[in-house]
## 1
Amino acid sequence: EPEVTQTPSHQVTQMGQEVILRCVPISNHLYFYWYRQILGQKVEFLVSFYNNEISEKSEIFDDQFSVERPDGSNFTLKIRSTKLEDSAMYFCASSRDSANTGELFFGEGSRLTVL
Amino acid sequence: KNEVEQSPQNLTAQEGEFITINCSYSVGISALHWLQQHPGGGIVSLFMLSSGKKKHGRLIATINIQEKHSSLHITASHPRDSAVYICAVLTQGGSEKLVFGKGTKLTVNP
């Protein structure tokens, strides 16, 4: 069964370093999303991506964050200068149709620890 | 005030019991998702609803748009159903921004 894959599963970094989290969405999906979940808190939307551009972003998704689909398969989240409060689980998801009309498929998550 | 409220926060059941998890929301929505988060952290989509009722195996999800309320039911619960169940909504107007509830932690004992 097709699945969304994320790498790395866990990354530890020093404050101020740049981090890239990678996602391979399901191949025929058109909508891509990043979410984050700080330990013990609810999941939060970061950004949605469609047709090679950001379609919507939350107030969390400031200039420190960027997303890219560098080739036909990868979807990356870059955090430019990490802060302690960026420590969280980051989930990638994809959907063939919009989340308004179709099922979301989530990756297993990338746990980011900022020291 | 959270836009999406779930109840109960925690639920413990005996194997075989019928489970109901509730979700209320305060905004107009275009769709509602029920998700399952495993103890290891991974998230699986269970249902996407915009009206009515859906059934998949032992799981049933209903939504009442007028009352801004949805329920997730699990029949004949099993210990493997133990997980956090999350309700998330998309606001009207074609937004892609899912707004999540805090989740309901379900524990099913054998």
Note: Chain B has a mean pLDDT of 94.
## 2
Amino acid sequence: ETGVTQTPRHLVMGMTNKKSLKCEQHLGHNAMYWYKQSAKKPLELMFVYNFKEQTENNSVPSRFSPECPNSSHLFLHLHTLQPEDSALYLCASSQEINVGGLNSPLHFGNGTRLTVT
Amino acid sequence: GENVEQHPSTLSVQEGDSAVIKCTYSDSASNYFPWYKQELGKGPQLIIDIRSNVGEKKDQRIAVTLNKTAKHFSLHITETQPEDSAVYFCAASGGSQGNLIFGKGTKLSVKP
């Protein structure tokens, strides 16, 4: 078990559906992240939360809406997605966010495999 | 911003041989370089990391070397085993862009 749990593991949705991805970390970390992993591309950072506050939105389309109710839980709300949004969505956490030379290792969950039809 | 290049994209070795994966980075201010291993159906897992104040770090069969002058770092796996088969990612952070920037990954196959 990685300490970061993501549900569901697999999700198939139509372009008009609304769904949510859930992430929970049991490591006592203060920062949480959403990454998108597509084939043959580097991991793409989407959102960063530090102590429940969003500190980064990496030019992500508004059809992806994150929510962080507390330091242990992170959601990604999805609506009117496109087929090119099909990918593995990874949640991660770290003790602190990586700024100013402070480097805190990322701990990833096993991801949600999303297919948009 | 930071850019991380990783080579090769695929690597096939015989069990017991060594494997080397290389990465270069662009931001000279970067000072933290982790390596992640991703097995099929799982998320990336940190296997080793190195900070800019050291040139080499070892953990059993895994070692990482860092050349700050040339801005490149490498992962070395000795005595490879079939369970080493996975996708390996390098990353860099600590520069002007604080968050980790990842390479595209290397798919390592270890043949029995």
Note: Chain A touches chain B at residues 2, 4, 6, 40-43, 45, 48, 56, 90, 92, 97-101, 103, 105-111 (CB under 8 Å).
